Amino acid sequence: MLTLAGIRLLSVRKNSSETASVKTVRLGGELEAVPGQFVMVWVPGKDEFPMSVSYPGSNFGITYQVLGEGTRALAEMANGKKVGIRGPYGRGFSIKGRKLLMIGGGVGMAPIAPLVDIARAKRLSVDLVIGAKTSDDLLFERRATRAGAKVHISTDDGTKGFKGFASELATELLDSAGPDHVFACGPEKMIVKIVAAASRRKIPMQASLERHMKCGIGICDSCALDGVHVCKEGPVFPLEELRKFGDLGVTKLDPAGRRVPV
Ligand SMILES: Cc1cc2nc3c(=O)[nH]c(=O)nc-3n(C[C@H](O)[C@H](O)[C@H](O)COP(=O)(O)OP(=O)(O)OC[C@H]3O[C@@H](n4cnc5c(N)ncnc54)[C@H](O)[C@@H]3O)c2cc1C
After folding, report:
1. Could you tell me the CATH superfamily of domain 2-89?
2. Residue nearest to atom 14 of ligand 1 (CA)
């Protein structure tokens, strides 16, 4: 393993498809991270971008949606190619409670899957909502079932499970499953709805937020949300902090630093 100015150069061990647009890359190396913490991934010659750690530990990996130039280049990397990794960075999820409700919307399942693994290893009860646009896009259903979570599926088009948004199914479960703590990662509109539902019922929660990140260590201001560096003070925030963000679900900074709607 090579280290270059704080960047560990790791080799691609396996780069395989989870769905038509999501892949998991395993990088030869050990990286311990709390679920919700992220790494900055450098694809030499292309880009550097943040990714949650979906497989912490000795068979370290990340799970990524193939979107633009950086992730497209990563998707094409064959075994043995080198990727630069900085981190892990930020505040991850902190397991609290005994009867947990977790929600992973789309690729938001990436940090929720290892959280399920750890909670189940502690023999905690986990109701998990996996949400996706359609059944082909569902992530980590088998992994979570094997870990012993009670898995609830929601698809926007009704091709599997509950027809509708993950936030609607999660709101039903807030009442029927009786969780004492909620954990969420996914689209910001989903998080805003779950924050409102958990607040009304006075159930504590934590959610992971996404903002444009460049430095990853609280210097560049690119990820600022109401003056808070999401990369350093987050990306996971507890309910009392989430409720204070006036810009949550409203605006964010784009890569050029312009304020744009979420
Ligand atoms: C803390 C954190 C954890 C993340 N974890 C995951 C994950 O586990 N899996 C996953 O698929 N995606 C994750 N993302 C989003 C991921 O960083 C972007 O999808 C990725 O950067 C896209 O890069 P690209 O070059 O392929 O696409 P681009 O064409 O450059 O961008 C596509 C979209 O990705 C987002 N994006 C691009 N660059 C950044 C950046 N530096 N920081 C934040 N967002 C960016 C923007 O919304 C942009 O519109 C995470 C983001 C954050 C902030």
Report:
1. Translation factors (2.40.30.10)
2. 51
